[in-house]
Design goal:
- The protein has a twelve-stranded mixed beta sheet with strand order 7-8-9-10-11-1-2-3-4-5-6-12, with no helix packed on it.
- It has a domain of about 160 residues: outer membrane lipoprotein receptor (LolB), chain A.
- With about 280 residues, the chain is mainly β.
- The N and C termini lie far apart (about 75 Å).
Length: about 280
């Protein structure tokens, strides 16, 4: 008797987990991608974006700048990002800046087109906690010390908060639901941050609004971003083309004929991260 009850209970739990949550849109209807957990194998793709930045001056004049971006990710985890600035006149040459990150070789390569030189930066191999004498008794070889980048980012944010003098305001977050971009479903969110009167010398509240649309099946690929800041202007970045396939190998290669400069990323601890940036400026 008890065994029958357990079987029925487990069947009911499994059935409830299989049902969609109320208010969500069924993804199989419009999506052409296969959702994956962030820690599963990467799904290769190539995505193209159009970026428009509009800045409004005090006299009402607007300055518009446009660029394009191509992002290619292969099944090995390599990622290529190529950003091209669109010239304002036909007699100017477009400039493309390319960055390739390879987690397997721990290298970051960058070059410009047109150009003649490429830089390859090799990052140090992650060091296990057990290889250091910090009083850590963990034997997990996968555990690593906090990266210098994370510490520097946190310190920089602290420094900026002190420098700007802007009090922390809790942002308002609005769920925008599910929409489809280029055949891919993405979940949207609108975040509004308000700068109160007098915080930066403003005589009226300022609102910074950002919309982000994310396709979680592709390592949290941002499909559409709209940022509206009264201080810096409005930026719209939207995906215009998407292809789910393995990118060509040449996508990740430095063009032939380029001079290659090899550098090593510093392996030492973050310099002066605690003494300088963690305290407010005098």
């Amino acid at each position: 008797m008890h065994g029958s009850i357990c079987v029925v209970f487990l069947w009911a739990v499994a059935a409830s987990l299989a049902l969609p949550v109320s208010g969500q849109v069924t993804r199989n209807r419009t999506t052409t991608i296969e959702m994956a957990h962030p820690h599963t194998a990467r799904l290769p793709y190539t995505a193209e974006f159009k970026i428009t930045r509009v800045q409004r001056l005090a006299n009402g004049t607007t300055i518009t700048r446009e660029s394009t971006e191509t992002v290619a990710v292969d099944s090995q985890g390599r990622q290529m990002t190529a950003t091209t600035t669109i010239p304002l006149s036909s007699d100017q040459t477009p400039m493309t800046h390319v960055v390739v990150n390879d987690p397997l070789t721990r290298t970051t390569s960058s070059w410009s087109v047109p150009g003649q030189r490429a830089t390859i930066i090799t990052r140090p191999k992650p060091v296990s906690v057990v290889e250091h004498s910090y009083g850590v008794s963990s034997t997990d070889s996968s555990a690593t010390l906090p990266s210098c980048l994370e510490n520097a980012t946190s310190s920089t944010l602290v420094s900026r908060n002190y420098a700007s003098g802007v009090p922390k305001e809790k942002p308002t977050v609005e769920d925008l639901g599910i929409e489809t971009f280029q055949g891919i479903e993405a979940h949207g969110r609108r975040t509004t941050r308000t700068i109160p009167v007098g915080a930066i010398g403003n005589d009226a509240p300022l609102e910074r609004v950002e919309e982000t649309w994310v396709a979680h099946g592709f390592r949290d690929l941002l499909i559409h971003i709209v940022s509206d800041d009264p201080q810096t202007g409005k930026t719209d970045k939207e995906m215009t083309k998407f292809e789910q396939s393995e990118p060509d190998e040449a996508t990740f290669q430095i063009p032939s004929g380029y001079e290659i400069v090899n550098k090593e990323a510093p392996a030492s601890a973050c310099p002066n991260s605690q003494s300088e940036e963690a305290s407010p400026p005098q």
